[in-house]
């Protein structure tokens, strides 16, 4: 479908803020990515329902992004519609031991709200830079904890615009996986089942983790978080470092010399630079260790 046709469909549609040919480099933590044909910032669930229904009726592909972490958009950009759920979808509430959060809220913010409220279980999320919705889609985890451990249910918008509540078991969680990776739907809100805990003890644990991250991860440079999944029994960063690839640079992208499982944007990097480094790492580790490293980062768009 041509750009002109898309503009005819979505211009004036009551789905929130609608932009055309919006550079996705403005919406990813890597500061990389070509334009989206249609870029939508909805403000209520009804907007999401109408978007899903309109896309389905017109056979328009769509993608949901949050804060743009764990995402590499190729230099040619994304065809169709990109839906952004971030501060525009960030309500949060507590009822007893349950925390209910809209999908666009920062996972770090949701975890810190739980901690301040004396609710235990989400401490692991204080170092995960994405949104709650993204965390559910990929079963994000850290420090031995995963989203599946605390998620009770998720409200999602189906492709026909209807709303459905999925329970934990329905999401078929596995390592960095949920069924939402294979059956695209829009996460609207999530409910976590937590437990009472000591705010002081949880904050002390988080401070220690934060201090370690600040000394071992390149947080000052644009990055997407960890690029590769950890293979069973070892760590991707360890394998990459042992292969002598720390500091390797292609174009404006570089394998961090601080943490080898991070690729940083050091000088106006393009997606093609990052993809070349990913390929180099995979080829090297496969030849050296007989292990195929699988990207954790979601790679989308056209060259």
TrEMBL record:
Location (main, coarse): cytoplasm
Reaction(s) catalysed by this chain's protein: UDP-N-acetyl-alpha-D-muramate + NADP(+) = UDP-N-acetyl-3-O-(1-carboxyvinyl)-alpha-D-glucosamine + NADPH + H(+)
Boundaries of every FAD-binding PCMH-type domain copy: 31-197
Classification via InterPro entries: FAD-bd_PCMH, FAD-bd_PCMH-like_sf, FAD-bd_PCMH_sub1, FAD-bd_PCMH_sub2, MurB, MurB_C, MurB_C_sf, Oxid_FAD_bind_N
Any one GO molecular function term: UDP-N-acetylmuramate dehydrogenase activity
Domain of life: Bacteria
Pfam family, any one: MurB_C
PROSITE patterns: FAD_PCMH
Subcellular location(s) per record: Cytoplasm
UniProt keyword Cell cycle present: yes
Keyword set, alphabetical order: Cell cycle, Cell division, Cell shape, Cell wall biogenesis/degradation, Cytoplasm, FAD, Flavoprotein, NADP, Oxidoreductase, Peptidoglycan synthesis
The enzyme's E.C. designation: 1.3.1.98
Active site positions, chain numbering: 176, 226, 296
Pathways involved: Cell wall biogenesis; peptidoglycan biosynthesis
Cofactor(s), by name: FAD
Alphabetical list of PANTHER family matching this protein: UDP-N-ACETYLENOLPYRUVOYLGLUCOSAMINE REDUCTASE
UniProt record similarity statement: Belongs to the MurB family.
Protein's job: Cell wall formation.
Name of the featured protein: UDP-N-acetylenolpyruvoylglucosamine reductase
Gene: murB
């Amino acid at each position: 479908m041509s750009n002109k046709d898309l503009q005819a469909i979505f211009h004036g549609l009551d789905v929130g803020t609608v932009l055309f040919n919006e550079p996705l480099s403005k919406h990813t933590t890597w500061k990389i990515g070509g334009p989206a044909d249609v870029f939508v910032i909805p403000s209520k669930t009804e907007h999401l329902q109408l978007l899903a229904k309109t896309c389905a009726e017109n056979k328009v592909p769509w993608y949901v992004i949050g804060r743009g972490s764990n995402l590499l958009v190729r230099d040619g950009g994304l065809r169709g519609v990109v839906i952004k759920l971030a501060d525009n979808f960030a309500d949060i509430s507590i009822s007893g031991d349950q925390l209910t959060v809209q999908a666009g809220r920062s996972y770090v913010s949701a975890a810190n709200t739980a901690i301040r409220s004396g609710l235990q279980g989400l401490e692991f999320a204080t170092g995960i830079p994405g949104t709650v919705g993204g965390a559910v889609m990929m079963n994000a985890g850290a420090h031995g904890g995963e989203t599946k451990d605390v998620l009770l249910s998720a409200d999602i918008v189906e492709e026909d615009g209807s709303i459905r509540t999925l329970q934990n078991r329905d999401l078929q969680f596995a390592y960095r996986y949920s069924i939402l990776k294979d059956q695209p739907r829009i996460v609207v809100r999530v409910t976590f089942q937590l437990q009472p805990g000591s705010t002081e003890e949880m904050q002390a644990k988080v401070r220690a983790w934060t201090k370690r991250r600040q000394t071992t991860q390149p947080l000052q440079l644009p990055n997407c978080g960890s690029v590769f999944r950890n293979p069973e029994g070892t760590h991707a960063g360890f394998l990459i470092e042992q292969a002598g690839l720390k500091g390797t640079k292609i174009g404006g992208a570089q394998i961090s010399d601080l943490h080898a499982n991070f690729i940083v944007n050091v000088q106006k990097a393009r997606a093609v630079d990052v993809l070349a480094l990913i390929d180099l790492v995979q080829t090297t580790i496969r030849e050296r260790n007989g292990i195929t490293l699988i990207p954790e980062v979601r790679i989308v768009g056209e060259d």
